[in-house]
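Supplementary Data S3. Sequence and structure tokens for construct A.
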Amino acid sequence: MDPFQPTRDDRFSFGLWTVGNPGRDPFGEPVRESVKPTQLVAKLAECGAWGVNLHDNDLVPFGASAQERDRIVADFKSALDDHGMVVPMATTNLFSHPAFRDGAFTANDPAVRAFALQKSMDAIDLGVELGARTYVFWGGREGSEADACRDPREALRRMRAAIDYLCAYVKDQGYDLVFALEAKPNEPRGDIYLPTTGAMLAFIASLEHGEMVGVNPEVAHEHMAGLSFVHAVAQAMEVDKLFHIDLNAQRIGRYDQDLRFGSEDLKQAFLLVRLLEGTSGTARYEGPRHFDAHAYRSEDLEGVWDFARGCMRTYKILVERARAFDADPEVQALIAEERDAKLEGLCAGYERERATTLRGLDLDPAALGRRGKQWERLDQWMTEHMLGARS
């Protein structure tokens, strides 16, 4: 049996917009035919995926009648049941319609803000009906090119009011649902408000119902800003706010590429998988592993499924490599050398007696400054584990 073949226990998911992407870009028309959502569900199940996620209009066309909406949703539910698939996450498209040309929740026009709330409540109902437990908000149009159009502080107040409103709606409806906010520095706007995961975490602390709001960090978005995605995810995990995650790949300094997971910066991908899986002995992330990526425009439909299988396979290979790295006795010994239970205890928190003891220690800064850390050796061992040259 292939140990890297995905199973439902891996909790891998894809969006309808990912495997359903027709290969359109700003410079070219679609290169692949559209595939029905029910067919995408069937094919994802065949590839070994566990879940499928969606924007509202990925499934129900904008402007569909109530009767048409109910028929589409019923057919989709049947496909989920037939193939043993689930919908762990849903979201709202608040960026495609011309009404959102200058924002949705942060727009200057109160009618646009009202429409965004209206559309979001309808989409939340749809997500809950399909079984979603997490709802993601990506503010793709929540930004500006001409900053003089609004005070950024007012934009944040409007964003806060919208999230508070929708949290209250979820509570009033009795839904078992949490929100995850997704950051991105730019594109399609010149600058997007709350551009990084760290900014989102600070914003969440200001919400009325912050306990039900976390983050949905994405590899590409953090790398677009030249930041470490692993550090962003670790920060979210450390405060129990990693509610969902978008996995893909990205070259730093490029437009949002949404490449196959692990196809760029394999070292960061390795460290990310190591963190999520807790192979070093830390807490494991128990949520979905969602791939928000697209096949190359060079591909036909068969290539789309090569892409989907590749995302899952690379993740599983990196899990195995991370486990081997953290089980390596030499790696464990090298990292353990930096640990001292007594000193760590004295630094753990202020108490008068503890501080007195700490201040009385005979520490030698010159000796501390001469000691090499051997991180070059550690990093080389990690590289050899990644490449399969060390076990």
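Construct B, processed identically:
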Amino acid sequence: MTKSLAPERVGRTPLWRRRDFALLWGGQTIGEFGARSSGVVVPLVAADTLAAGVFQVSLLTALAWLPYLLFSLPAGLVADRVDQRRLMIGCDLGRAALLASVPLVGLVGQLTLPYLYVVVGLNGVLTVFFTVAYKSVVPRLVPADQLVEGNARLTVSEDAAQLVGPAVGGALAGALGGARTLLGTTVAFLVSAATLGLIRSHPATGATRAQRVPARVALTEGLGFVRRHPVLLSTLLCATTSNFFGMATASLEVPYLLRELRAAPAVVGVVVSAGAVGGLVAGLLAARIAARVGSARVIWVAMAAPGPFYLLMPAAQPGWGLLLYAVGLAAYSANAVLFNVALVSYRQRVTPPELLGRVTAAFLWVCFGAVPLGALFGGALADAWGMRPTLVVTAVGTWSAALFVVCSPLRTMRDLPSGCGAGDG
């Protein structure tokens, strides 16, 4: 077993006092709010301004996710060969320009659904490249013994944006109109780009090593590294299984709450927001939980412990029984945040810097590739069996993902390994 490093607190500089990390954290927080808001506003523009049908609006969601399947691996290769900070700035500026073009094209009366599809698709491509670079640059700005804390802070910002961003975007769209609201979201991306530009650290990206390898070989090096690393492979299988069944649950969420539990639309929003609170709390406490449980052990504990609570969702009833659904959703949200924070920290610790972009991309490609399949599975099974029985299946399926990490070398580890390489763990 590899020598471990327990979290060290004596003499550490607090993360909020580390200028470069604080800039990344602040800019990413604002950028996430912009991204979450636009995720609601763009479909509103399609439905209200362009009178798009249900299927036409659903295509926007498909186009937003499709780039993860098509571009994750190339994005990893690019992130390992270029200055990651500049790549992120370029993606932010590109996303701002794309969203700003929607109201401008609308002003001249040329806004159409095909144009909106192009904007969403290209925006998705830039988001993939940004995400890969963003998750690869964090270890360059944060000391190894503060990775869990740093990733936890960034995850809390993402969860806060998921909680508040859609509500703010919807409210502004109702008051100002969807097109005008998109101008506001472009400001968020511009602020994110500006904060990235102020970061002083310009460490080597490992591009020289990556460029020596032919592109065809380098493209799959990340997948090869994961396949040879038993802990990373088990976490990849765990995350993919969890995403599959989790998205199957999410695909039934709104119709289940509206039709089966007879909740009003406003109540649906409250229940979903209440569920997101679990992730916020878990993110705020992630560093402390990791220190007490173990920064490596928490990976499998986070997946296994909340499992029974998932069954509260199919057990929910109308009225006050809706609280059962909110509790189950909060447990899933807390599990996702704790697991992701610990997993990303582990991955950043054990992966060589010159491979981190491609290893991150491999995870995104496989894990997010399960998302649309899970949604189709949930819908098809609900049509055949009904929503409650399907939610029982998806709850058990989500919990079963824990087996991949419980039955892995992680079970014998307490803290993150001190070195990197395929043999670690």
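DSSP finds 18 helices and no strands in the chain. The chain has two domains: 16-219, 220-425.
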